[in-house]
Every structure is written in C-alpha cells, then in structure tokens.
Write a structure and sequence with these properties.
The protein has 420 residues and is of the alpha/beta class. The chain has a domain of 288 residues: 3-Layer(aba) Sandwich (Rossmann fold), CATH 3.40.50. The protein is built from 17 helices and 13 strands. Strand 5, helix 4 and strand 6 form a beta-alpha-beta unit.
C-alpha cells in the first residue's frame, strides 16, 4: 500500500502550522482588546421622532450642490447603518461629499406593541410624516425619495400616492414585480404559510427570518466567511471591518406581523403592486401616477432581489425621464463593495444635480426617449471578498463587543489554540 504522506514536506508543513497557530494567537489577542465595534459614525442630528421611528439629518461635508433634499429609506428587516458601515466604505459619506443634503429614517426595533402595524401605517403614516418633517426642516416643497431594497419598494409606493411631494425617485436593488421565480427567496415566499408565522409570533423575530436568509447561500454564509476570516485574523483594521459586517448581520430587528403578512401575501404571492391592485387603507397604489424623474439601480448578480423584479418599474411608471442603471455586483456590494464606492455616489449625485431645479426637470422630462438603460463602465470582475458578498441576513442579537460576534465554535477554537 502506498504511503499517502510519503511526498509530504514535513518542514514546510510544520512551518505552515506554526504560522496558523501564531495567527490564531494574535487574533485571540486582538479580539480580547476590541471592546466596541463602531458603525454609523457620520455626524447627524435627530430632527423628528414618532413611536420607535427616528429621522436624522446628516451634517454636510461639502458645499451644497443640489437644492432638493434626499430622504433615504432602508428596509425594515435590517439596520440602516449598513449605508455608513465604516468611514472608508460609507455610501452616506460619499453622497455628503458630493454635496447632497441627506436625511435618513431609522425604523427602530418593533416590540409586541407594534405587532398590528401595517404597510398603511408605515407608508401613509410614518413615511409621510417624515417627508413633511424633511420638507419643513429643509424649507423645500419637495424631496428626492431614495429607497433601498424593501425601502425602495416603499419609496415607490409613496411616490405614487404623494407625487406632489416628490421631486425625484431613486431606487436601489428594490423589488416591484414579484412574478419572477428567479432566486430562492421569491420561490419560497410564494408558498410560505405567512398566516401561521405571524399568528404564532406577532412580531416575527429577526433570528427566525435569519434562518431563511442563511439557507439562500448556506456554504458562503455559514462556513466560507469564517474560513476567510482566518486570513485577516492578525490584521486589526481588517478584522474590525469583518466584525462590523457581522454586527450588522446579527443586529436585525423583528418585523411587525401585519406589515410582513401584507407584504408577503399582496406582493410576493399576489403581485398586486405590479398589477395596480395594492390597497393601503382607502388608497389604491397606481405606479402609473409616478411622473417624476426616476433612477432605478439594480445589481446584476443580486441573489436576493433579482434584476427581473427590479427592472419592470421603468415600464410601470409614466415618467418620461427614467434611467435604468446596472451595477456589476451583488445586493450588499452596492453599498460596501470597493468598486461601488467610486461608482454609484458620483452617478447618483450627477443625476440629481442635473435635475435639481424645476427648469432642468422640465427639459429632461420633455425628451421623447423612453427608458434609458445605463451600464457600469466595463471592468474585470473583482475577486469575491467576504465584505462584498454578505447576503442580507437577519438575527435578533445586538452584539456590543467582538467577543460575542464571532461564533462560539470559533471562539472555542481560539481559546484552545491559546492554551497550547
């Protein structure tokens, strides 16, 4: 029988193992020293609050280049500080550096007292009140609605219901046509017994939803990223960046049951938004009433919100000035990917500045051309990195230190290696 180890270089193997052990020990030391993971550090002030909701205005970082304020709306399932995850990869800071006047909604953490909040409450209630607060604070009659993921869907719905308050609409990786079967999430949601889930929990915990999101990419989200972590374990800056993402992933609010019930049944299962049949309170949502300029951004490799769910918006609105923009990347890469930092903020700011006055909007709207699809500059696909490939996952814990961010099994391995 051949000896499987006969060709092994014992010295090289021992050297490699010693290097791994050294890296683990250095990582354990760094993890012990890290007390807090800082996120969302761009300076801001609260200008409005209602129930769990807060509205913040960001301190300008450059002279104002656009007279129309931008109100950013994120999804309910995750925390909005993803857009300001770290100083050198901050979507918000990039917009501020371009001279935009930015406001953002913080949805907070729902409790059982909020279990009966509906889409009507969130959109006709909280969002409308926040828009009015932005209009008053900025002394502007209209705002630019910028919505991300589910927040983009909400922003589109709001713009259809209150077009007189919206100057421009920008959506990023947001679903509007739920008929597609691209992506596991859209497949699973169509057959989900959402009534049983909501009736059982009231406010559906983030960790329950998290299990579903992790199953969309089980190897990458449960194993690979922690293997990749070993490569940066002895580099404090890179380790903290990794932990920032982990904090965001597991800092996920629960969802108000009635809102989740309607979003699942009316959109994922009934596709009522695209059909013009969605009702919020006594209002029927007609996307055809959207006539303002729109910029619709989708990610070509988005496994969570496939392009087929995003792109149809441009055919459902009545706007003459409408742009469809393709970003070469994934769902979260839109905000934290290294390429997105240089690409999207300039694209968005240029688009907004060109439409910052009523006159320029009228000129742009008078163009006879239909949807204009723009694509990102040709570039070689960037190697997959753990930061840019995190899926939109959810959890319930709110980690405060590095020690309880790293999985227990990995922490145990570190302790064992340190003892040796």
């Amino acid at each position: 029988m051949n000896n499987l180890f006969s060709g092994m270089d014992a010295k090289a193997t021992l050297k490699y193992l010693n290097g791994v052990q050294s890296k683990l020990m250095k990582g354990a030391e760094l993890l012990t020293d890290i007390e807090e993971i800082d996120v969302g550090t761009a300076e801001k002030e609260q200008i409005y609050a209602e129930d769990k909701i807060e509205l913040h205005h960001y301190k300008p970082l450059a002279s104002k280049a656009c007279g129309i304020p931008v109100m950013v709306t994120y999804a309910l399932v995750n925390r909005a500080y993803m857009l300001d995850i770290q100083p050198d990869r901050s979507f918000i800071r990039n917009l501020l550096n371009m001279g935009l006047d930015v406001y953002m909604i913080d949805w907070g953490y729902p409790t059982q007292a909020d279990r009966y909040l509906s889409m009507d409450d969130y959109i006709n209630g909280y969002m409308n009140n926040c828009v009015d607060a932005v209009r008053k604070h900025s002394k502007s009659d209209k705002v630019t609605m910028m919505g991300i993921c589910q927040g983009g869907t909400f922003s589109g719905i709001y713009s259809a219901l209150y077009p007189e308050k919206v100057h421009n609409l920008i959506t990023l990786v947001a679903p509007f046509d739920f008929a597609t079967n691209d992506g596991l999430l859209f497949n699973w949601s169509k057959d989900m017994d959402i009534d049983a889930l909501v009736d059982a929990y009231g406010v559906v915990p983030g960790d329950v939803l998290n299990e579903s999101y992790l199953m969309l990419m089980p190897f990458n989200l449960n194993i690979k990223k922690y293997i990749d972590m070993l490569e940066v374990l002895d580099d404090k800056d890179k380790l903290i960046n990794f932990l920032r993402m982990e904090k965001w992933i597991f800092d996920s609010p629960g969802l108000a049951g009635e809102c989740l019930r309607q979003f699942t049944k009316d959109l994922y299962q009934g596709n009522k938004l695209a059909k013009g049949q969605l009702k919020l309170g006594d209002k029927t949502v007609d996307l055809g009433k959207i006539t303002m300029p729109i910029l619709n951004i989708y990610a070509s490799a988005d496994h969570l919100v496939p392009p087929a769910a995003t792109k149809p918006l441009n055919d459902l609105v009545s706007s003459k000035d409408k742009t469809l923009y393709e970003f070469k990347g994934g769902h979260i890469g839109v905000f934290v990917g290294s390429r997105s930092q240089k690409e999207l903020a300039p694209v968005i700011s240029k688009w907004l500045i060109e439409r910052s006055s009523t006159a320029s909007t009228k000129v742009a709207s008078s163009k006879a051309a239909p949807t204009v699809e723009e694509k990102a500059p040709a570039a070689k696909p960037a190697p997959a990195k753990s930061t840019a490939t995190k899926a939109k996952t959810a959890g319930t814990a709110k980690p405060k230190t590095a020690k309880n961010i790293v999985p227990e099994v990995f922490s145990a391995a570190l302790k064992k290696s340190t003892k040796k």
